[in-house]
Amino acid sequence: MLFRPALLPLLLAATALTFAGGCELLGGLSGSGGVDFGDPYTVVREASDLGSPPSLDAAGLHVSVTHSAGCAPHDFRLRHRIRGDAAEVWLHHDDHGEMCEALRFQRLTFTVPRAVLSATTVVLLTPDGDPIPLL
Question: Which residues partner with 48 through β-bridges?
Answer without folding.
Answer: 51
